[in-house]
Amino acid sequence: MIDMLRNPLAIRASVKARTRWEKFFIFLGLFSIAIALLTLVLLVGDLLLRGAPILNWKFFTSPPSGDPAEAGILTAWVGSLLVILVTIVVAVPLGVAAGIYLEEYAPKNWLLDFIEINITNLAGVPSIIYGLLALGFFVYILKWGESILTAGCTLALLILPVIIVATREAIRAIPQGIREGAYAVGATRWQTIADHILPYSMGGILTGVIVGVSRALGETAPLVTIGALTFITFLPDAPLKGEFPYVSFKWLWSPFTVLPIQMFNWVSRPQEEFQVNAAAAGIVLLVLTLGVNAMAIYLRYRFRKSIKW
User: Fold this and answer.
1) Membrane spanning segments where (predicted)?
2) What region, left, alpha or beta, does residue 145 occupy, with left being phi > 0 and alpha being psi -120 to 50 degrees?
3) Structure pTM?
4) Which of 92, 131, 253, 291 is the most buried (most CB within 10 A)?
5) Residue 71, Cβ neighbours under 10 Å: how many?
């Protein structure tokens, strides 16, 4: 090593070799990105070419049918929205509260380390495992049946670790000086969290929430496991009524289907027309997912813009 440092030729040769390897890895990375983007463009392009021509008002307002020309996604997109509503109501408060407690209140000991490891591992568990857990607990033990409530709680369990981890990371990114300044003027721990920590970290928390919800929108395996219907022609009861008490919760116990399951049903049929319907439903699901992510970016931008450090 010392001899090489004393020899300028050896140094130049080493630098050239490292430069060549660096250029090779840059080329390899760009090539991999190009292949991934090209594949994505081809898949989305094929989806648009096949499904876009049949996207019309009738397709959105018609229930499934044995006739592909009459089949639509009314029950599927309504079911998706109701299931995701339950998922958000259950997962977001629990996930954010758990993240706040673990980061700000929990004592730093072996038990916290054990919980952190398990939460991180749960974020990588296959979704079918959550479906089996929900089947045993929500369907057989709690007797909730194959309902919207069961589906929403199942997906809430699925995205709960993601929300907890995102909340903890967002809170951890807040400078310690903000906490110390709040304590210095007499604020309690909760006042510090509510008035300073949460507003500053809300952008990161919302990003984690929306990413989790985007994942839940496209899940199929856990919902199939708990008994989601692949063919349903009626809508759940309306959440709002025109008479007192104006709010109904009967829809929570209704059978359901969602967009991914409706697509699975159509793709499994041999007729080409049903394949086209599945492509159109895929476009709707893609737009929904992109819309949710766009909302996350907008909310994060608004929160960051409204905060003055």
Assistant:
1) 75-102, 122-142, 148-166, 197-217, 279-299
2) left
3) 0.83
4) 131
5) 24
Residue 40, both tokens: 């994505």
With a cut of 90, say whether residue 34 has pLDDT above it: yes
Average of per-residue pLDDT across 10-23: 75
Calpha distance 270→279 (Å, rounded):
14
**With contact defined as beta carbons under 8 Å apart, do 5 and 11 qualify?**
yes
pLDDT in tens, 256-269: 888 888 888 888 88
Q: Name the CATH architecture for the domain at 56-306.
A: Orthogonal Bundle (1.10)
Closest CA to 236 of 95, 131, 81: 81
| Model confidence pLDDT, tens digit, residues 172-191 | 888 888 888 888 888 888 88
CA–CA gap between residue 264 and residue 285 (Å, rounded): 13
DSSP-assigned letter for residue 71 = -
The residue among 148, 130, 285 whose CA lies nearest residue 218 is: 285
Q: Where are the alpha helices (DSSP H) in the chain?
A: 2-6, 8-51, 57-61, 74-100, 110-122, 127-134, 148-172, 176-184, 189-192, 198-217, 221-225, 259-267, 272-306
Is pLDDT at 229 greater than 60 in this prediction? Answer: yes
Distances (CA, A) of 257 to 24, 42, 215, 248: 49, 29, 17, 20
Domain range list for the chain = 2-53, 56-306
The angle formed by the CA atoms of residues 21, 25 and 28, to the nearest 5 degrees, is 140
